[in-house]
Write a structure and sequence with these properties.
Oligomer: single chain
Number of strands: 14
Structural class: alpha+beta
Number of helices: 25
Largest sheet: 5 strands, antiparallel
Protein backbone atom coordinates (compact mmCIF):
# COMPACT_ATOMS: atom_id res chain seq x y z
CA UNK A 1 0.00 0.00 0.00
CA UNK A 2 1.30 3.45 -0.95
CA UNK A 3 0.76 6.67 0.98
CA UNK A 4 0.63 9.60 -1.46
CA UNK A 5 1.58 13.20 -0.68
CA UNK A 6 -1.22 15.65 -1.49
CA UNK A 7 1.24 18.45 -2.28
CA UNK A 8 3.83 16.79 -4.53
CA UNK A 9 4.10 13.46 -6.38
CA UNK A 10 5.94 11.64 -3.59
CA UNK A 11 4.87 8.15 -2.49
CA UNK A 12 5.71 6.47 0.82
CA UNK A 13 5.27 2.86 1.91
CA UNK A 14 4.21 3.73 5.49
CA UNK A 15 2.37 6.57 7.16
CA UNK A 16 5.42 7.34 9.28
CA UNK A 17 7.55 7.87 6.17
CA UNK A 18 4.94 10.24 4.75
CA UNK A 19 4.86 12.16 8.05
CA UNK A 20 8.63 12.58 7.85
CA UNK A 21 8.31 13.76 4.23
CA UNK A 22 5.72 16.37 5.26
CA UNK A 23 7.90 17.54 8.11
CA UNK A 24 11.00 18.02 5.96
CA UNK A 25 9.44 19.25 2.72
CA UNK A 26 6.18 21.02 3.49
CA UNK A 27 6.26 22.27 7.06
CA UNK A 28 7.48 25.86 7.52
CA UNK A 29 5.55 28.00 9.97
CA UNK A 30 2.34 29.56 8.72
CA UNK A 31 1.61 26.76 6.28
CA UNK A 32 -1.45 24.57 6.64
CA UNK A 33 -0.61 20.91 5.98
CA UNK A 34 -3.38 18.54 4.96
CA UNK A 35 -4.24 15.27 6.70
CA UNK A 36 -2.34 12.31 5.26
CA UNK A 37 -5.50 10.37 4.38
CA UNK A 38 -6.89 10.94 0.90
CA UNK A 39 -10.49 10.82 2.12
CA UNK A 40 -9.98 13.47 4.84
CA UNK A 41 -10.08 17.18 3.83
CA UNK A 42 -8.84 18.53 7.17
CA UNK A 43 -5.71 20.70 7.38
CA UNK A 44 -3.69 21.98 10.34
CA UNK A 45 -1.28 24.79 11.16
CA UNK A 46 0.73 22.99 13.85
CA UNK A 47 2.52 19.66 13.96
CA UNK A 48 0.88 18.78 17.28
CA UNK A 49 -2.62 19.38 15.87
CA UNK A 50 -1.94 17.05 12.93
CA UNK A 51 -0.57 14.29 15.18
CA UNK A 52 -3.54 14.65 17.54
CA UNK A 53 -5.97 14.43 14.63
CA UNK A 54 -4.28 11.28 13.29
CA UNK A 55 -4.30 9.70 16.74
CA UNK A 56 -7.95 10.47 17.42
CA UNK A 57 -9.60 9.92 14.07
CA UNK A 58 -7.28 7.72 11.97
CA UNK A 59 -5.74 5.24 14.43
CA UNK A 60 -7.75 2.33 13.04
CA UNK A 61 -7.30 3.59 9.47
CA UNK A 62 -3.51 3.29 9.37
CA UNK A 63 -3.56 -0.07 7.62
CA UNK A 64 -6.83 0.47 5.76
CA UNK A 65 -6.73 0.71 1.99
CA UNK A 66 -7.21 4.30 0.84
CA UNK A 67 -9.89 3.25 -1.67
CA UNK A 68 -12.41 2.52 1.15
CA UNK A 69 -13.93 5.16 3.44
CA UNK A 70 -15.66 4.22 6.72
CA UNK A 71 -18.52 6.44 7.87
CA UNK A 72 -21.18 6.64 10.58
CA UNK A 73 -24.76 7.24 9.46
CA UNK A 74 -27.51 8.86 11.52
CA UNK A 75 -30.63 6.68 11.37
CA UNK A 76 -32.85 9.71 12.05
CA UNK A 77 -31.77 12.10 9.27
CA UNK A 78 -29.26 10.03 7.20
CA UNK A 79 -26.40 12.47 7.90
CA UNK A 80 -22.95 10.93 7.41
CA UNK A 81 -19.89 11.57 9.59
CA UNK A 82 -16.35 10.31 9.17
CA UNK A 83 -15.40 10.32 12.86
CA UNK A 84 -17.11 9.13 16.02
CA UNK A 85 -16.84 12.35 18.01
CA UNK A 86 -18.80 14.42 15.50
CA UNK A 87 -21.30 11.58 15.05
CA UNK A 88 -22.26 11.53 18.74
CA UNK A 89 -22.32 15.33 18.83
CA UNK A 90 -24.87 15.15 16.02
CA UNK A 91 -26.97 12.60 17.94
CA UNK A 92 -26.82 14.96 20.90
CA UNK A 93 -28.43 17.68 18.81
CA UNK A 94 -31.37 15.35 18.09
CA UNK A 95 -31.68 14.55 21.79
CA UNK A 96 -31.62 18.23 22.73
CA UNK A 97 -34.66 18.58 20.50
CA UNK A 98 -36.25 15.69 22.48
CA UNK A 99 -36.25 13.32 19.50
CA UNK A 100 -36.35 9.64 20.49
CA UNK A 101 -32.99 8.08 19.64
CA UNK A 102 -32.13 4.37 19.67
CA UNK A 103 -28.84 3.01 20.95
CA UNK A 104 -26.46 2.53 18.02
CA UNK A 105 -24.66 -0.57 19.37
CA UNK A 106 -25.38 -4.18 18.41
CA UNK A 107 -27.76 -6.13 20.67
CA UNK A 108 -29.06 -3.09 22.55
CA UNK A 109 -32.69 -2.00 22.22
CA UNK A 110 -32.39 0.99 24.56
CA UNK A 111 -34.03 4.23 23.39
CA UNK A 112 -34.66 7.63 24.97
CA UNK A 113 -35.29 11.28 24.14
CA UNK A 114 -33.28 12.67 27.07
CA UNK A 115 -29.76 13.88 26.34
CA UNK A 116 -28.17 13.00 29.69
CA UNK A 117 -29.82 9.57 29.90
CA UNK A 118 -28.55 8.55 26.46
CA UNK A 119 -24.92 9.38 27.11
CA UNK A 120 -25.02 7.94 30.64
CA UNK A 121 -26.23 4.66 29.08
CA UNK A 122 -23.46 4.80 26.48
CA UNK A 123 -20.81 5.41 29.13
CA UNK A 124 -21.99 2.61 31.43
CA UNK A 125 -22.99 -0.10 28.95
CA UNK A 126 -20.79 0.46 25.90
CA UNK A 127 -17.46 1.75 27.14
CA UNK A 128 -15.01 0.84 25.72
CA UNK A 129 -16.18 -0.04 22.20
CA UNK A 130 -14.89 -0.34 18.63
CA UNK A 131 -16.31 0.11 15.14
CA UNK A 132 -17.30 -3.57 15.08
CA UNK A 133 -19.75 -2.89 17.95
CA UNK A 134 -21.93 -0.52 15.92
CA UNK A 135 -25.12 -1.75 14.26
CA UNK A 136 -24.83 -2.62 10.53
CA UNK A 137 -27.20 0.17 9.49
CA UNK A 138 -24.96 2.72 11.24
CA UNK A 139 -21.58 1.70 9.78
CA UNK A 140 -21.20 2.50 6.09
CA UNK A 141 -18.48 1.87 3.51
CA UNK A 142 -18.13 3.58 0.15
CA UNK A 143 -15.49 4.08 -2.49
CA UNK A 144 -13.36 7.19 -2.80
CA UNK A 145 -14.30 9.93 -5.23
CA UNK A 146 -12.76 9.78 -8.72
CA UNK A 147 -10.54 12.80 -8.08
CA UNK A 148 -9.11 11.09 -4.97
CA UNK A 149 -7.94 8.03 -6.87
CA UNK A 150 -6.18 10.33 -9.31
CA UNK A 151 -3.86 11.30 -6.48
CA UNK A 152 -2.35 7.79 -6.43
CA UNK A 153 0.57 7.86 -8.83
CA UNK A 154 2.64 5.08 -10.33
CA UNK A 155 5.87 3.68 -8.96
CA UNK A 156 7.79 5.50 -11.68
CA UNK A 157 7.17 8.83 -9.94
CA UNK A 158 8.56 7.70 -6.59
CA UNK A 159 11.69 9.41 -5.39
CA UNK A 160 15.05 7.76 -5.48
CA UNK A 161 15.75 5.60 -2.46
CA UNK A 162 19.46 5.15 -3.11
CA UNK A 163 22.49 6.75 -1.43
CA UNK A 164 21.71 10.14 -2.97
CA UNK A 165 18.49 10.31 -0.97
CA UNK A 166 20.46 9.99 2.28
CA UNK A 167 22.62 12.97 1.30
CA UNK A 168 19.58 15.01 0.33
CA UNK A 169 17.85 14.09 3.57
CA UNK A 170 20.89 15.26 5.54
CA UNK A 171 20.82 18.59 3.68
CA UNK A 172 17.11 18.94 4.36
CA UNK A 173 17.66 18.30 8.06
CA UNK A 174 20.40 20.93 8.19
CA UNK A 175 18.10 23.35 6.36
CA UNK A 176 15.35 22.55 8.88
CA UNK A 177 17.75 23.39 11.71
CA UNK A 178 18.54 26.66 9.96
CA UNK A 179 14.83 27.36 9.56
CA UNK A 180 14.32 26.72 13.29
CA UNK A 181 17.13 29.11 14.28
CA UNK A 182 15.79 31.71 11.85
CA UNK A 183 12.33 31.30 13.38
CA UNK A 184 13.69 31.78 16.90
CA UNK A 185 15.54 34.95 15.95
CA UNK A 186 13.00 36.61 13.62
CA UNK A 187 9.58 35.32 14.70
CA UNK A 188 10.06 34.80 18.45
CA UNK A 189 12.67 37.61 18.77
CA UNK A 190 15.24 35.48 20.61
CA UNK A 191 18.51 37.39 20.88
CA UNK A 192 21.51 36.33 18.82
CA UNK A 193 23.56 35.80 21.99
CA UNK A 194 20.90 33.44 23.37
CA UNK A 195 20.91 31.44 20.13
CA UNK A 196 24.70 31.17 20.25
CA UNK A 197 24.46 29.70 23.75
CA UNK A 198 21.67 27.34 22.65
CA UNK A 199 23.77 26.06 19.74
CA UNK A 200 26.76 25.54 22.04
CA UNK A 201 24.73 23.60 24.60
CA UNK A 202 23.06 21.39 21.97
CA UNK A 203 26.43 20.61 20.45
CA UNK A 204 27.74 19.64 23.89
CA UNK A 205 24.74 17.34 24.44
CA UNK A 206 25.42 15.60 21.13
CA UNK A 207 29.06 15.09 22.06
CA UNK A 208 28.34 14.00 25.63
CA UNK A 209 25.83 11.38 24.47
CA UNK A 210 28.61 9.14 23.08
CA UNK A 211 28.83 6.93 26.25
CA UNK A 212 25.07 6.39 26.18
CA UNK A 213 25.18 5.37 22.51
CA UNK A 214 28.09 3.05 23.25
CA UNK A 215 26.04 1.27 25.94
CA UNK A 216 23.15 0.86 23.49
CA UNK A 217 25.49 -0.65 20.90
CA UNK A 218 26.94 -3.06 23.51
CA UNK A 219 23.45 -4.23 24.54
CA UNK A 220 22.46 -4.81 20.92
CA UNK A 221 25.63 -6.81 20.23
CA UNK A 222 25.14 -8.91 23.36
CA UNK A 223 21.52 -9.56 22.43
CA UNK A 224 22.56 -11.20 19.15
CA UNK A 225 25.78 -12.77 20.60
CA UNK A 226 28.11 -10.72 18.39
CA UNK A 227 31.74 -10.52 19.48
CA UNK A 228 33.23 -7.18 18.41
CA UNK A 229 36.42 -5.57 19.65
CA UNK A 230 36.05 -2.57 21.93
CA UNK A 231 38.13 -0.34 19.63
CA UNK A 232 35.73 -1.07 16.77
CA UNK A 233 32.71 -0.18 18.92
CA UNK A 234 34.36 3.04 20.07
CA UNK A 235 35.20 4.04 16.50
CA UNK A 236 31.65 3.21 15.40
CA UNK A 237 30.15 5.39 18.14
CA UNK A 238 32.48 8.28 17.28
CA UNK A 239 31.48 8.10 13.61
CA UNK A 240 27.80 7.97 14.54
CA UNK A 241 28.15 11.09 16.66
CA UNK A 242 30.18 12.97 14.06
CA UNK A 243 27.94 12.01 11.12
CA UNK A 244 24.70 12.90 12.86
CA UNK A 245 23.17 15.92 11.05
CA UNK A 246 22.68 17.77 14.35
CA UNK A 247 26.34 17.34 15.31
CA UNK A 248 27.65 18.26 11.86
CA UNK A 249 25.41 21.34 11.75
CA UNK A 250 26.06 22.69 15.26
CA UNK A 251 29.72 21.68 15.57
CA UNK A 252 32.65 24.09 15.36
CA UNK A 253 33.11 23.35 11.66
CA UNK A 254 29.37 23.27 10.93
CA UNK A 255 27.31 25.99 9.23
CA UNK A 256 25.85 27.09 12.60
CA UNK A 257 29.00 26.79 14.69
CA UNK A 258 29.21 30.57 15.21
CA UNK A 259 27.06 33.65 14.81
CA UNK A 260 28.98 34.67 11.67
CA UNK A 261 28.59 31.24 10.06
CA UNK A 262 24.92 31.11 10.95
CA UNK A 263 24.18 34.49 9.34
CA UNK A 264 26.21 33.50 6.28
CA UNK A 265 24.23 30.27 5.89
CA UNK A 266 20.88 32.07 6.27
CA UNK A 267 21.82 34.63 3.61
CA UNK A 268 22.89 31.91 1.18
CA UNK A 269 19.98 29.51 1.67
CA UNK A 270 17.07 31.83 2.51
CA UNK A 271 15.66 34.73 0.49
CA UNK A 272 16.73 37.56 2.77
CA UNK A 273 16.39 40.94 1.06
CA UNK A 274 18.74 43.07 3.13
CA UNK A 275 17.81 46.70 3.82
CA UNK A 276 19.94 49.47 2.33
CA UNK A 277 21.00 52.49 4.39
CA UNK A 278 20.53 55.94 2.83
CA UNK A 279 22.47 58.82 4.40
CA UNK A 280 20.57 62.04 5.13
CA UNK A 281 23.37 63.88 6.96
CA UNK A 282 26.79 62.25 7.33
CA UNK A 283 28.05 64.72 9.95
CA UNK A 284 25.11 64.14 12.27
CA UNK A 285 24.93 60.43 11.35
CA UNK A 286 21.31 60.66 10.24
CA UNK A 287 19.98 57.97 7.88
CA UNK A 288 17.02 55.78 7.04
CA UNK A 289 16.58 52.17 5.93
CA UNK A 290 15.11 51.20 2.56
CA UNK A 291 14.19 47.67 1.42
CA UNK A 292 14.62 47.42 -2.38
CA UNK A 293 11.21 47.09 -4.00
CA UNK A 294 12.28 45.41 -7.25
CA UNK A 295 14.47 42.86 -5.47
CA UNK A 296 11.59 41.97 -3.16
CA UNK A 297 9.25 41.53 -6.14
CA UNK A 298 11.79 39.26 -7.81
CA UNK A 299 11.86 37.00 -4.75
CA UNK A 300 8.06 36.97 -4.54
CA UNK A 301 7.47 36.13 -8.18
CA UNK A 302 10.23 33.50 -8.14
CA UNK A 303 8.04 31.48 -5.75
CA UNK A 304 5.46 29.63 -7.82
CA UNK A 305 2.83 29.57 -5.09
CA UNK A 306 3.22 33.33 -4.59
CA UNK A 307 3.26 34.09 -8.31
CA UNK A 308 0.11 32.02 -8.83
CA UNK A 309 -1.65 33.96 -6.08
CA UNK A 310 -0.81 37.45 -7.34
CA UNK A 311 -0.65 37.04 -11.12
CA UNK A 312 -4.13 35.62 -11.65
CA UNK A 313 -5.29 38.97 -12.99
CA UNK A 314 -8.75 38.38 -14.42
CA UNK A 315 -10.58 41.21 -16.20
CA UNK A 316 -13.41 42.52 -14.03
CA UNK A 317 -16.55 42.58 -16.20
CA UNK A 318 -19.05 43.01 -13.36
CA UNK A 319 -21.08 46.21 -13.16
CA UNK A 320 -20.89 46.05 -9.35
CA UNK A 321 -18.05 47.48 -7.24
CA UNK A 322 -16.15 44.28 -6.39
CA UNK A 323 -12.47 45.28 -6.59
CA UNK A 324 -10.14 48.16 -7.34
CA UNK A 325 -10.52 47.31 -11.04
CA UNK A 326 -14.06 48.71 -10.91
CA UNK A 327 -12.77 52.13 -9.82
CA UNK A 328 -12.36 55.00 -12.27
CA UNK A 329 -8.69 55.42 -11.33
CA UNK A 330 -7.94 51.96 -12.66
CA UNK A 331 -10.25 52.14 -15.69
CA UNK A 332 -9.00 55.55 -16.82
CA UNK A 333 -5.32 54.71 -16.38
CA UNK A 334 -3.82 53.83 -19.77
CA UNK A 335 -0.93 52.02 -18.09
CA UNK A 336 -3.29 49.32 -16.78
CA UNK A 337 -5.37 49.10 -19.96
CA UNK A 338 -2.59 47.83 -22.24
CA UNK A 339 -1.87 44.41 -20.64
CA UNK A 340 -1.99 42.73 -17.20
CA UNK A 341 0.15 44.70 -14.77
CA UNK A 342 1.20 44.42 -11.14
CA UNK A 343 -0.66 46.92 -8.95
CA UNK A 344 0.71 48.15 -5.63
CA UNK A 345 -1.00 49.62 -2.59
CA UNK A 346 1.21 52.03 -0.61
CA UNK A 347 0.73 53.01 3.02
CA UNK A 348 2.61 55.44 5.28
CA UNK A 349 2.12 56.02 8.99
CA UNK A 350 3.96 57.04 12.17
CA UNK A 351 4.12 54.79 15.21
CA UNK A 352 5.76 54.72 18.62
CA UNK A 353 8.01 51.80 19.55
CA UNK A 354 8.16 52.93 23.19
CA UNK A 355 5.47 53.76 25.69
CA UNK A 356 3.66 56.81 24.20
CA UNK A 357 2.95 58.06 27.74
CA UNK A 358 6.45 57.50 29.12
CA UNK A 359 9.63 59.58 29.22
CA UNK A 360 10.74 58.33 25.77
CA UNK A 361 7.62 59.74 24.09
CA UNK A 362 8.41 60.94 20.54
CA UNK A 363 12.11 60.15 21.06
CA UNK A 364 11.92 56.96 19.00
CA UNK A 365 8.85 57.74 16.90
CA UNK A 366 9.24 56.06 13.51
CA UNK A 367 7.70 56.65 10.10
CA UNK A 368 6.99 53.40 8.25
CA UNK A 369 6.17 52.97 4.57
CA UNK A 370 4.59 49.65 3.59
CA UNK A 371 3.25 48.19 0.36
CA UNK A 372 1.08 45.28 -0.70
CA UNK A 373 0.19 43.66 -4.01
CA UNK A 374 -3.29 44.73 -5.04
CA UNK A 375 -3.43 41.77 -7.45
CA UNK A 376 -3.51 39.31 -4.57
CA UNK A 377 -6.97 38.18 -3.37
CA UNK A 378 -8.26 40.22 -0.39
CA UNK A 379 -8.15 37.20 1.96
CA UNK A 380 -4.45 36.73 1.15
CA UNK A 381 -3.59 40.43 1.10
CA UNK A 382 -4.89 40.90 4.64
CA UNK A 383 -2.24 38.60 6.14
CA UNK A 384 0.65 40.50 7.73
CA UNK A 385 3.26 38.55 5.76
CA UNK A 386 1.65 39.87 2.54
CA UNK A 387 2.37 43.43 3.68
CA UNK A 388 5.97 44.34 2.83
CA UNK A 389 8.31 46.89 4.37
CA UNK A 390 9.65 49.66 2.18
CA UNK A 391 11.07 52.44 4.41
CA UNK A 392 11.78 53.00 8.09
CA UNK A 393 12.82 56.51 9.12
CA UNK A 394 12.82 58.60 12.28
CA UNK A 395 9.74 60.82 12.30
CA UNK A 396 11.82 63.89 13.20
CA UNK A 397 14.04 63.29 10.16
CA UNK A 398 10.99 63.14 7.91
CA UNK A 399 9.87 66.55 9.18
CA UNK A 400 13.35 67.97 8.77
CA UNK A 401 14.29 66.63 5.34
CA UNK A 402 10.81 66.21 3.85
CA UNK A 403 9.07 63.34 2.11
CA UNK A 404 10.85 64.06 -1.16
CA UNK A 405 14.20 62.97 0.25
CA UNK A 406 12.77 60.00 2.15
CA UNK A 407 10.69 58.61 -0.73
CA UNK A 408 13.34 59.18 -3.40
CA UNK A 409 14.62 55.56 -3.63
CA UNK A 410 11.06 54.21 -3.64
CA UNK A 411 9.88 56.62 -6.34
CA UNK A 412 12.80 55.65 -8.53
CA UNK A 413 11.63 52.03 -8.49
CA UNK A 414 7.99 52.80 -9.14
CA UNK A 415 6.91 53.32 -12.73
CA UNK A 416 3.51 54.86 -12.00
CA UNK A 417 2.16 56.54 -8.89
CA UNK A 418 -0.90 58.69 -9.39
CA UNK A 419 -3.80 59.88 -7.22
CA UNK A 420 -6.94 61.93 -7.98
CA UNK A 421 -10.48 62.35 -6.67
CA UNK A 422 -13.63 64.49 -6.82
CA UNK A 423 -15.45 65.39 -3.64
CA UNK A 424 -19.17 66.22 -3.58
CA UNK A 425 -20.29 67.66 -0.19
CA UNK A 426 -24.02 66.87 -0.40
CA UNK A 427 -24.35 64.51 2.55
CA UNK A 428 -23.75 67.16 5.25
CA UNK A 429 -26.36 69.52 3.83
CA UNK A 430 -29.06 66.83 3.71
CA UNK A 431 -28.15 65.58 7.20
CA UNK A 432 -28.56 69.06 8.65
CA UNK A 433 -31.93 69.48 6.93
CA UNK A 434 -33.29 66.25 8.46
CA UNK A 435 -31.58 66.62 11.87
CA UNK A 436 -31.15 70.38 12.46
CA UNK A 437 -30.17 69.94 16.14
CA UNK A 438 -27.54 67.26 15.51
CA UNK A 439 -23.98 68.30 16.34
CA UNK A 440 -21.70 67.32 13.47
CA UNK A 441 -18.37 65.58 14.02
CA UNK A 442 -15.35 65.15 11.70
CA UNK A 443 -16.64 61.69 10.78
CA UNK A 444 -19.66 63.25 9.10
CA UNK A 445 -17.32 65.23 6.88
CA UNK A 446 -15.23 62.15 6.02
CA UNK A 447 -18.41 60.36 5.03
CA UNK A 448 -18.96 62.88 2.24
CA UNK A 449 -15.93 61.60 0.40
CA UNK A 450 -16.96 57.93 0.46
CA UNK A 451 -19.09 57.90 -2.74
CA UNK A 452 -16.31 59.51 -4.78
CA UNK A 453 -13.66 57.26 -3.21
CA UNK A 454 -15.73 54.13 -3.93
CA UNK A 455 -16.23 55.30 -7.49
CA UNK A 456 -12.51 55.89 -7.91
CA UNK A 457 -11.02 52.91 -6.05
CA UNK A 458 -13.81 50.32 -5.83
CA UNK A 459 -14.86 48.78 -2.48
CA UNK A 460 -12.94 50.59 0.26
CA UNK A 461 -12.75 47.42 2.37
CA UNK A 462 -10.09 46.20 -0.08
CA UNK A 463 -7.86 49.22 0.63
CA UNK A 464 -8.55 49.82 4.33
CA UNK A 465 -5.66 50.62 6.63
CA UNK A 466 -6.40 48.25 9.52
CA UNK A 467 -4.02 45.50 8.39
CA UNK A 468 -1.26 48.01 7.62
CA UNK A 469 -1.61 49.46 11.12
CA UNK A 470 -1.47 45.92 12.54
CA UNK A 471 1.96 45.64 10.89
CA UNK A 472 3.31 48.14 13.45
CA UNK A 473 2.95 45.49 16.16
CA UNK A 474 5.85 43.45 14.75
CA UNK A 475 8.32 46.34 15.17
CA UNK A 476 7.01 47.22 18.63
CA UNK A 477 7.50 43.60 19.75
CA UNK A 478 11.06 43.55 18.40
CA UNK A 479 11.97 46.67 20.38
CA UNK A 480 10.31 45.33 23.52
CA UNK A 481 12.19 42.02 23.33
CA UNK A 482 15.60 43.31 22.20
CA UNK A 483 15.75 46.67 23.97
CA UNK A 484 18.24 47.82 21.33
CA UNK A 485 18.09 51.54 20.42
CA UNK A 486 21.66 52.03 19.15
CA UNK A 487 20.58 51.72 15.50
CA UNK A 488 16.91 50.94 15.89
CA UNK A 489 16.03 51.40 12.19
CA UNK A 490 18.64 48.87 11.04
CA UNK A 491 17.67 46.38 13.76
CA UNK A 492 13.97 46.59 12.94
CA UNK A 493 14.35 46.39 9.17
CA UNK A 494 16.84 43.50 9.38
CA UNK A 495 14.60 41.53 11.75
CA UNK A 496 11.64 42.13 9.46
CA UNK A 497 13.44 40.90 6.35
CA UNK A 498 14.63 37.78 8.18
CA UNK A 499 11.04 37.11 9.24
CA UNK A 500 9.82 37.51 5.66
CA UNK A 501 12.55 35.17 4.40
CA UNK A 502 11.41 32.56 6.91
CA UNK A 503 7.83 32.72 5.61
CA UNK A 504 8.91 32.77 1.95
CA UNK A 505 10.65 29.40 2.23
CA UNK A 506 7.47 27.31 2.11
CA UNK A 507 6.72 25.40 -1.10
CA UNK A 508 2.95 25.08 -0.77
CA UNK A 509 0.15 27.34 -1.97
CA UNK A 510 -1.06 30.26 0.10
CA UNK A 511 -4.17 29.26 1.98
CA UNK A 512 -6.31 31.72 3.87
CA UNK A 513 -8.66 28.99 5.11
CA UNK A 514 -7.83 25.92 7.19
CA UNK A 515 -10.37 23.13 7.71
CA UNK A 516 -10.02 21.15 10.92
CA UNK A 517 -13.43 19.45 11.11
CA UNK A 518 -15.86 18.34 8.40
CA UNK A 519 -19.42 17.00 8.65
CA UNK A 520 -21.87 15.83 5.98
CA UNK A 521 -25.58 16.60 5.63
CA UNK A 522 -28.15 15.32 3.13
CA UNK A 523 -28.61 17.59 0.15
CA UNK A 524 -32.37 17.64 0.73
CA UNK A 525 -32.10 19.64 3.98
CA UNK A 526 -30.49 22.61 2.21
CA UNK A 527 -32.30 25.55 0.68
CA UNK A 528 -33.69 24.87 -2.80
CA UNK A 529 -31.43 27.45 -4.47
CA UNK A 530 -28.37 25.98 -2.77
CA UNK A 531 -29.41 22.49 -3.93
CA UNK A 532 -29.59 23.70 -7.53
CA UNK A 533 -26.15 25.32 -7.30
CA UNK A 534 -24.58 22.18 -5.81
CA UNK A 535 -26.16 20.00 -8.51
CA UNK A 536 -24.83 22.28 -11.24
CA UNK A 537 -21.32 22.15 -9.80
CA UNK A 538 -20.94 18.45 -8.96
CA UNK A 539 -23.60 16.43 -10.75
CA UNK A 540 -23.06 17.64 -14.32
Amino acid sequence: MKWSCKVCRYNATTRGDLLQHYRLQHWPSGTSVACLHLDCPCSFKTWTALRTHLSRYHTQDEDRKPEVILSLKCVLCSSIYTNEKEYFQHLGNHLKSHETTECVFIGCAFKTNIYGTFFTHKSRKHNPHSLEDFKPDVIGKHQTLPNETDLIVSDQTCEDTGPNQSTESSKEIIRTIGSLLLKLESVYNVSSKCIDELVEELNFICTASAPVIQQVVHRSLEKYSCAVEEDVVTELVEELCKSHPLSSALGVNGPFGSSFKRKKYLKEHFDIVEPVEYILNSHEKLSFQYVPLLQTLQHILAKKYLADAVLKILPCTSTQYESYQNGTHFKNNEFFSEEPRISLILYIDDFEVCNPLGTSRKKHKITGVYWALANAPPEVRSTLTAIHLSILCKAVDVKRFGYEAILEPLLKELSVLEQEGVFVPKHRQRLQEVFPNLKLTPKHHYLEHYPALIEAFGPLVNVWTMRFEAKHRFFKRVVRFTGNFKNVLLSLSTKHQMMMAYHWQRNTSMSALSVSKVSSVPLEVLDGRIQESVKELFLN
